[in-house]
């Protein structure tokens, strides 16, 4: 199988180890991976603010990088960015190529769980108690876990994958599906509310004696990690690709 690797801009700039872990993990699983080197932003921040004018440039650039459709999927380790491409990337004309790019784009957990159906990660060992944070975009947009407000039968694809790693103990916090308060530009426009929501999440982890918070979305973890550091908490935050690949940390 051939895939193109979509590394969101903030991962490239702030969390490069997540990009490395994702690439290494896919290659461990026998996937032929192409990494378009000119990719930048998918356009989500501008689109979230209703700035279609500037979304056009980034969405056009995204499609220029992935227009070579000689691969099966475009895999990205970020639920919110993948959700934008799949559900909201409509500032540009919806040509046949654009439509196919959007259709082929898939989030990493979905790809491993639903497409590859991975049953084991024999190289991985993570002897820690973890809590899972699935982002609002991943839950409500991509449906990688059941939505509690819909009263659906329980499922959690992130949890399914983590439980295949030796040593991992998954701790369920009191309010696992509650928003952490990041919300992209929301944390700038409503910083007091955003900070309080993040503090509530950190307190929930602390009550349950969690060592690591694991998520498919580093954007949410960036927000929560900032709050934890300000509170001098010992909590650590890692992307699920780092756990499944056994590093780099």
UniProtKB/TrEMBL annotation:
InterPro entries: Cys_rich_dom. It comes from the Bacteria. Residues 3-84, 130-223 form the Cysteine-rich domain. It holds the Pfam family CCG. PANTHER family: LACTATE UTILIZATION PROTEIN A (PTHR30296:SF0), UNCHARACTERIZED PROTEIN YKGE (PTHR30296). This is (Fe-S)-binding protein. It comes from Epilithonimonas ginsengisoli.
């Amino acid at each position: 199988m051939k895939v193109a690797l979509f590394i969101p801009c903030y991962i490239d700039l702030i969390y490069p180890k997540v990009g490395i872990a994702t690439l290494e993990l896919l290659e461990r699983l026998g996937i032929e991976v192409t990494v378009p080197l000119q990719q930048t932003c998918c356009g989500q921040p501008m689109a979230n603010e209703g700035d279609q004018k500037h979304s056009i440039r980034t969405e056009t650039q995204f499609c220029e990088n992935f227009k070579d459709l000689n691969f099966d999927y475009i895999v990205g380790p970020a639920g919110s960015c993948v959700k934008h491409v799949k559900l909201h990337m409509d500032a540009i004309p919806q040509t046949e190529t654009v439509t196919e790019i959007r259709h082929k784009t898939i989030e990493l957990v979905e790809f491993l769980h639903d497409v590859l159906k991975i049953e084991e990660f024999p190289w991985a060992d993570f002897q820690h108690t973890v809590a899972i944070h699935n982002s609002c975009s991943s839950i409500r947009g991509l449906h990688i876990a059941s939505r509690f407000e819909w009263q659906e039968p329980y499922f959690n694809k992130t949890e399914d994958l983590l439980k295949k790693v030796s040593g991992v103990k998954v701790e369920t916090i009191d309010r696992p599906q509650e928003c952490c308060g990041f919300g992209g530009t929301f944390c700038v426009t409503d910083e007091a509310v955003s900070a309080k929501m993040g503090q509530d999440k950190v307190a929930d982890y602390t009550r349950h004696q969690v060592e690591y918070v694991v998520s498919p979305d580093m954007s949410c973890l960036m927000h929560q990690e900032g709050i934890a550091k300000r509170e001098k908490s010992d909590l650590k935050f890692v992307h699920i690709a780092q756990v499944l690949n056994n590093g780099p940390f």
